[in-house]
């Protein structure tokens, strides 16, 4: 089973129809959403607490605690440092970005009914994912060559002739073949097979370097609605429309680690450019129940987000085989009418369940006299539930290779990832007009550990708040420690490695608002 999965993963990377890979599904779902400064200071735990605009994106039932309106603006500044390790060598890089947390307003209406005490509606905007990162790693690999994945793809599509090999895979293998990174050799008579010129140098080591520039994010607008039933049960729901924009510029280079000018391989470089864009739709439902005055219990469900996305992808390969065939470059756009390949598809992200409990110190009707709270959330996300689906236009016949490709891709996702739990805790102490807050959040490992792949994210947060005469100002710092992996290529018939990515991310948020 493991060998079959590795074949699927390796073949998907350069499939001729599009540029999706299993990592894309995880990238768009293993995220740390933004929020208001108050919510982020308590670890993001808003499943049973309520009374904050960010409840729109966590548990919309929390809007039921509003008795008056709120307007909130939440600017943020994010900075990060990364250590990327590959074959015992470590590279450092950093980046920074201005962004926005939960911003918008809530309208609340009191009701004299014994059953419905109040209702609220919210209009909010939030950054639910930030893709900005710069990754650089390098090392000497004496296990395999990047080009071996091209050889595997060609061989796994046999019978295939030289002409077909040079045209069938315009986003990888054909470019490698046309620049002689991959070549043929005679196996007797008129028979021949394919091999990599670089793979002959693996025993002496290949210098490999990967540089990736990721940009973009997911920005969601949402409409929330909640009702307060007799101050005991809050019910709420929200509809979200996320806009996803992602771009990746990637350059992978491998070179001869020796100074021999006559071994028919000096270096090869793969340059890729991917741009993904589209809109989605999701829904969130929740309830909060107060069994006693001091306790709040919350339950929420986040539906999968259904995205309609478009990829624009292009790549080029340059190979220097020294005196053998010299320096050659081939472009995918030479096979796609001079422009980037475009592919439309549907992505369905995982669903999420949230269970929560809060203990409010001095829980009374006048919230200005409450002394603080403790709160905790547990989230379950089934990452392997992500799936890609064909999206066709009426009257246009779909490519017959697309459906089986997406079936294989979804199988690879199902076998590469698993469900995981996230844990969030936080608290607040109130001193008249001033508040002190602290929290923590642990995002669990989404990988099934096929090739010793593991990841997690730990957030530690603290903040201050000020409330006086309808004006509120919150300031928060979130320190995030993240561990992840990046695999430049996967192979069926040889060992392959991944880079270990360790990041520290600082996020400074401020929320300014007023009640009306």
Index terms:
516 residues; Porin; 23 strands; 53% strand; disordered N terminus
Q: Can you describe this structure?
A:
This protein is 11% helix and 53% strand. The protein is mainly β and 516 residues long. The protein has one domain (2-134, 220-245, 281-325, 339-515): Porin. The strands form two sheets. It has a 14-stranded antiparallel barrel. Helix 1 (2-12) crosses helix 8 (402-416). The radius of gyration is 26 Å and the shape is elongated.
* CATH homologous superfamily caption: Outer membrane protein transport protein (OMPP1/FadL/TodX)
Number of strands: 23
Spatial strand sequence of the major β-sheet: 1-4-5-9-10-11-12-16-17-19-20-21-22-23
Indicate the overall shape: elongated
Give the rounded overall mean pLDDT: 90
CATH architecture: Beta Barrel
CATH class: Mainly Beta
Number of helices, where a helix is a run of at least 4 consecutive DSSP H or I residues:
8
Structural topology:
Blueprint lengths: L1 H11 L9 H6 L9 H5 L13 H4 L11 E4 L1 E12 L2 E12 L2 E8 L5 E15 L2 E9 L6 H8 L6 H4 L7 H6 L3 E7 L2 E6 L9 E24 L3 E24 L10 E23 L5 E8 L3 E15 L6 E5 L9 E8 L3 E10 L10 E11 L4 E4 L11 H15 L2 E13 L2 E10 L12 E13 L2 E16 L12 E17 L1
Antiparallel strand pairs: 1-4, 1-23, 2-3, 2-23, 4-5, 5-9, 6-9, 7-8, 9-10, 10-11, 11-12, 11-13, 12-16, 13-14, 13-15, 15-18, 16-17, 17-19, 19-20, 20-21, 21-22, 22-23
Helix pairs in contact: 1-8
């Amino acid at each position: 089973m493991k060998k079959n999965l590795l074949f699927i993963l390796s073949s998907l990377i350069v499939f001729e129809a599009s540029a999706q890979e299993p990592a894309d599904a995880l990238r768009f779902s293993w995220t740390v959403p933004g929020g208001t400064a108050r919510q982020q200071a308590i670890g993001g735990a808003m499943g049973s607490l309520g009374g904050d605009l960010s409840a729109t994106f966590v548990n919309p039932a929390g809007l039921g605690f509003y008795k008056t309106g709120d307007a909130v603006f939440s600017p943020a500044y994010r900075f990060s440092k990364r250590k990327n390790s590959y074959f015992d060598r470590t590279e450092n890089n950093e980046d920074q970005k201005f962004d926005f947390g939960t911003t918008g307003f809530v309208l609340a209406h009191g009701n004299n009914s014994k059953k419905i005490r109040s209702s609220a509606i919210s209009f909010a905007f939030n950054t639910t994912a930030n893709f900005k990162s710069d990754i650089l790693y390098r090392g000497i690999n004496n296990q395999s060559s990047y080009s071996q994945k091209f050889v595997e793809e060609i061989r796994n599509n046999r019978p295939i002739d030289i002409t077909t090999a040079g045209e069938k895979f315009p986003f990888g293998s054909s470019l490698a073949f046309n620049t002689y990174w991959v070549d043929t050799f005679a196996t007797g008579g008129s028979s021949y097979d394919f091999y990599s010129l670089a793979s002959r140098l693996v025993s002496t080591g290949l210098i490999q370097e990967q540089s990736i520039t990721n940009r973009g994010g997911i920005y969601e607008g949402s409409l929330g609605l909640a009702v307060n039933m007799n101050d005991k049960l809050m019910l709420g729901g929200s509809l979200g429309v996320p806009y996803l924009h992602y771009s990746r510029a990637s350059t992978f280079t491998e070179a001869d680690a020796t100074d021999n000018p006559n071994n028919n391989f000096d270096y090869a470089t793969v340059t890729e450019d991917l741009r993904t864009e589209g809109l989605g739709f999701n829904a969130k439902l929740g309830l909060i129940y107060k069994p006693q005055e001091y306790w709040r219990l919350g339950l929420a469900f986040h539906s999968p987000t259904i995205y309609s996305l478009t990829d624009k992808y292009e790549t080029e390969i340059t190979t220097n085989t020294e005196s053998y065939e010299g320096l050659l470059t081939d472009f995918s756009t030479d096979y796609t009418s001079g422009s980037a390949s475009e592919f439309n598809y549907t992505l369905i992200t995982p669903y999420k369940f949230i269970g929560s409990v809060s203990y409010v110190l001095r829980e009374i009707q006048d919230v200005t006299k409450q002394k603080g709270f403790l709160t905790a959330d547990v989230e379950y996300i089934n990452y392997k539930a992500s799936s890609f689906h064909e999206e066709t236009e009426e009257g246009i016949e779909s490519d017959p290779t697309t459906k089986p490709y997406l079936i294989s891709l979804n199988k690879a996702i199902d076998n590469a990832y698993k469900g995981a739990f996230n844990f969030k805790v936080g608290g607040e102490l109130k001193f008249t007009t001033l508040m002190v807050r602290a929290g923590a959040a642990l995002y669990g490992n989404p990988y099934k550990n096929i090739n010793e792949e593991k990841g997690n994210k730990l957030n530690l947060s603290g903040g201050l708040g000020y409330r006086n005469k309808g004006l509120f100002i919150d300031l928060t710092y979130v320190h995030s420690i993240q561990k992840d992996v990046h695999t430049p290529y996967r192979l069926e018939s040889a060992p392959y490695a991944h880079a270990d990515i360790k990041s520290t991310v600082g996020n400074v948020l401020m929320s300014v608002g007023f009640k009306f």
